[in-house]
Amino acid sequence: MWLAEAGHDVTLLERRGHLGGRTHAMRAERVDDLPDNGQHVIASGYEHLFRYLTSIGTRQFVAFPATSTLRWPDGRKVVVRTTGFGAVRQLFGVHPDAGVHDRLRAARATVRLGWQALHPPADLGDLTTEQWFTRVGMPSPAREALWDWLALGIAAEPVSQGSAKVFAKVLATGFRMGVRHRRAITIGYPTVDLDTLLVSGALSFFAAHGVRVRYRAVARRIRIEGGAVTGVQLTDGTVVPADGVVCAVPNSNVGGLLDDLPEHAEIDSAADTLSYTPIVSTNLYLDRPLGTESAFEGLIGGTGVIDEVFDRQLMHGRSTERGWLYCLTTSGAYEQIHRTSDAIVAEQLALLRRYYPAARDAEVLEAQVVKMPRATFSQVVGMDSLRPPQRTSVPSLVLAGDWTATDWSATMESAAQSASAAVELLLARKYEA
Ligand SMILES: Cc1cc2nc3c(=O)[nH]c(=O)nc-3n(C[C@H](O)[C@H](O)[C@H](O)COP(=O)(O)OP(=O)(O)OC[C@H]3O[C@@H](n4cnc5c(N)ncnc54)[C@H](O)[C@@H]3O)c2cc1C
Where in the numbering of this chain does the Amine oxidase domain appear (predicted)? Predict the structure, then answer.
């Protein structure tokens, strides 16, 4: 889109029959609904993603709720503020069991965490997030009610494995943006399905700007001759001629594509090492409401990995004629990914029953389990420094995608920021020439 806006003639090659990549809607036939492949949240600091949404006219479909609810299995709950001064105060401890001493310790540890995020100690890259929390003295109630949850969400890895450096980088980005815009970064969500948010508007834009989209066009090798790109060879043997290429495939798909690039071995090796982490999403249609109070709620002490319940009725204003839809996403789902869909549905229902009295007699009308073994690249200790830059040694070939080097972890914003950087590089080349 941004290349077309700048006057370039653009062809988009997509190996699947639809656009959207890892963010797309799916049909649920039995209940005639359009849930997503996985619930996606959006931080208010996602400035490149917002630029994209503004370009396609869907910026208004992101909402930032003022509160969220944390629940414990024994029925206790805390409503936390997610915006304004209340959100900053929350950083110092929201756990109902936290005494004055814990809150003071949490405040001190939070200040240390912030300082070290902005001025990273030399060995931060060798630490897991858990080791970092221990080092700054973060008390366990504050970890349980906030920090572990936040770190899991950002790195999609359990804190015992997640890289402190990745978490620190995103915290630092958040602090800097908060200072720049004089507003704390907060978490929001789409109020429409992901196709409406990200794809439909793009298709209209493409039609209006003459961007060609070729579906089921699998790129095999980017052709380079005499230090310049000449085209993209597809798996069917044909070559799409081009004088500039943005290679925006995930790290798990890049093998072979860059073989003509002098530094391809280094990039391929980084892509392999970055590997992947699994996410399992479950869309549950129940015959009754759960009694949620916030659009998304955190379940503390659940299965030990992220447990969040997204209430699509509150988020999308969807009709409950065909049941109530609740979306659950498990990041770092190393064990769950090997279970059957039925077992996952049973496990998630049992989880809901521990937290919501209304779930005890609830029946599942329809369930979808989306297992994504390669959901994102792995953000465990030592990985961050491997992410390749967008610039390559061939000026007409640039890289993009969430796994390339950006200010963010594996997120939509990382994908959008890398795309922005890639486009700038190609446009600068044009002016240099
Ligand atoms: C379940 C789940 C939950 C998530 N939750 C969040 C969240 O809450 N917030 C957030 O910001 N991010 C979240 N993410 C991460 C986010 O979805 C990704 O980081 C982002 O979508 C990556 O975008 P991308 O463009 O880099 O890659 P992709 O979306 O994977 O796009 C790459 C495209 O390239 C195509 N392709 C691959 N190989 C070829 C080839 N050889 N030829 C042609 N086409 C090819 C693919 O088909 C795909 O369409 C989540 C991801 C998952 C899976």
Answer: 3-426
